[in-house]
Write a structure and sequence with these properties.
- By secondary structure, the chain is an alpha/beta fold.
- It has helices spanning 25-37, 53-64, 90-104, 123-135, 149-158, 176-182, 198-204, 234-247, 251-260, 275-282, 291-299, and strands at residues 13-16, 42-44, 73-78, 80-81, 85-86, 109-114, 139-145, 163-169, 208-212, 216-218, 224-226, 266-270.
- The strands form 3 sheets. Strands 1-2-3-6-7-8-9-12 form an 8-stranded parallel barrel, surrounded by 5 helices. A two-stranded antiparallel sheet has the order 4-5. Strands 10-11 form a two-stranded antiparallel sheet.
- The longest helix is centred in the first third of the chain and has 15 residues, at 90-104.
């Protein structure tokens, strides 16, 4: 698949590198090699992941494996200041980009995302940031993470439509974009618009959605837990088992197939550091679920259609 204004083909799966700093060098090498063997050429980072150590270890791995920089897509994010809020100021973002470039041992980022909305953002200051890093060729493509359509539209109106990606939490259990679309004009909680119609906005404006936490469920207190093999989701797992058996894959592969079945530009971000699991997950890209299977999986979460 291609992202707007980018000439490089990008994989529909992204390997999230948040926790790789806790792994040995050899384990990281096996993980990155497995990703590439499965056609996954897109790697996601952020300045706050393991205090930047994940970016450092990733750069070491790329050098050790002698991987051509032009053959992979490196994405990083900034804007979160842990315990202090958010900061899209020109000084902070430019410093963060330079720091990530140094840790990643690269001259440029293929994609840079503003990590979460900053209510104190000065929009023209963001425009200056984009102009400067574009002129110096430090960043090729821009996007956001965890923004709604109105926030993204505001950025693009001022910044010449430079923001082409939105990274959002999305799974079979946490799919508010789907819930809202299937419950338009009904008097129930699933009809609540939580993202300003981000699904339709993305199609109309050529925005790529990157789905994170595809295997997790968030409760009302925002505690995330895996729903695969979780007794709280017995019916969902029974249906996933049935469909997985039909296609001779694991339930993780069916989750990926379910997300990619949506007719929208989408990438799915997986954060596993288990090589076997990554191999299983990658098989989901080759499965096209039937309409009946897709809706059966959705309704098995307890949501009525």
């Amino acid at each position: 698949m291609k992202i707007k204004n980018c000439d490089i083909d990008m994989s529909s799966l992204i390997l999230g590198c948040q926790r790789i700093a806790s792994k040995s060098d050899s384990d990281i090498e096996k993980l990155v090699s497995t990703a590439l063997e499965n056609g996954i050429n897109f790697f996601d980072h952020a300045d706050i992941y393991m205090n930047g150590e994940s970016e450092i270890k990733f750069a070491k791995t790329i050098k050790s494996l002698n991987i051509d920089r032009e053959s992979i897509i490196i994405q990083s994010k900034a804007g979160i200041k842990v315990g202090q809020g958010f900061d899209f100021s020109k000084k902070h973002i430019l410093t963060s980009i330079d720091s990530s470039l140094k840790r990643l041992n690269t001259d440029y980022l293929d994609v840079f995302l503003l990590h979460r909305p900053d209510m104190l953002m000065e929009i023209n200051e963001v425009k200056d940031i984009l102009y400067e890093v574009s002129q110096t060729k430090k960043v090729k493509n821009f996007g956001v993470s965890n923004h709604d359509s109105h926030q993204l539209n505001l950025l693009n109106k001022i910044c010449d439509n430079k923001f082409v990606i939105n990274q959002l939490q999305m799974s079979i259990t946490d799919c508010h974009m789907v819930d809202r679309a299937l419950n338009v004009n009904t008097n129930n909680l699933l009809s609540i618009d939580r993202d300003g119609g981000m699904y339709e906005y993305s199609i109309l404006n050529d925005i790529t959605i990157q789905a994170w936490s595809p295997f997790k469920f968030s409760d009302s207190n925002y505690n995330k837990e895996i729903y695969i093999n979780n007794p709280k989701f017995e019916n969902l797992n029974n249906v996933l088992d049935k469909v997985a058996t039909k296609y001779s894959v694991t339930k993780e592969a069916i989750v990926i197939a379910w997300l990619l079945r949506l007719p929208i530009k989408m990438q799915v971000l997986v954060g596993t550091s288990n090589v076997e699991r990554l191999n299983n997950i990658a098989l989901g890209r080759n499965i096209k679920l039937t309409r009946l299977e897709w809706y059966e999986i959705y309704s098995s979460t307890g949501k009525k259609i």
